Amino acid sequence: SSTMSLSEAEVQSARCAWEKIYVDPEDNGTAVLVRMFTEHPDTKSYFTHFKGMDSAEEMKQSDQVRGHGKKVFSAINDMVQHLENSEAFLGIVTPLGKKHATQLKIDPKNFRIICDIILQLMEEKFGGDSKASFEKVTNEICTHLNNIYKEEGW
């Protein structure tokens, strides 16, 4: 039984959109993080080793920023592969949400910020259709993460 609200056609078009940006997970993941840190400087406070970095250029060169950018994109890629299997999807989202809620204590609003920046980047690179087709996926991800946070007492 699926808790996903995406039709088969929506899953397919979301995957096509994602595949385009996932061709280069490290560079695109880094671009997303750098934009987040630049436009929402408070998000940097969670990453102790990024705190001292002020220039976007410096962040782009950082192995730690690049590594985390790639990690974020890999996690989303795993979710995208399991959109029609809610159990498998939740198997990825749940531990990730729990870790960010309990260990890392990341404010859940940051997930929406990062998803919105991914959508912006998709639109800039591949046009509005790509963005539109991936929007439902980001909504699913954020909804499930928020539910996990609620269960963890946020």
Automatic annotation (TrEMBL):
One cellular-component annotation, GO: sarcoplasm
Recorded GO MF terms: heme binding; iron ion binding; oxygen binding; oxygen carrier activity; superoxide dismutase activity
Catalytic reactions on record: H2O2 + AH2 = A + 2 H2O; Fe(II)-heme b-[protein] + nitric oxide + O2 = Fe(III)-heme b-[protein] + nitrate; 2 superoxide + 2 H(+) = H2O2 + O2; Fe(III)-heme b-[protein] + nitric oxide + H2O = Fe(II)-heme b-[protein] + nitrite + 2 H(+)
Pfam name, any one: Globin
Keyword hit for Oxidoreductase: yes
Locations listed in the record: Cytoplasm, Sarcoplasm
Globin domain residues: 5-150
Keyword Plastid: no
Alphabetized UniProt keyword annotations: Cytoplasm, Heme, Iron, Metal-binding, Muscle protein, Oxidoreductase, Oxygen transport, Transport
Annotated function: Involved in oxygen transport from the lung to the various peripheral tissues.
Family statement drawn from the similarity comment of this UniProt entry: Belongs to the globin family.
Protein name per UniProt: Myoglobin
Organism: Pycnonotus jocosus (Red-whiskered bulbul)
Organismal lineage: Eukaryota, Metazoa, Chordata, Craniata, Vertebrata
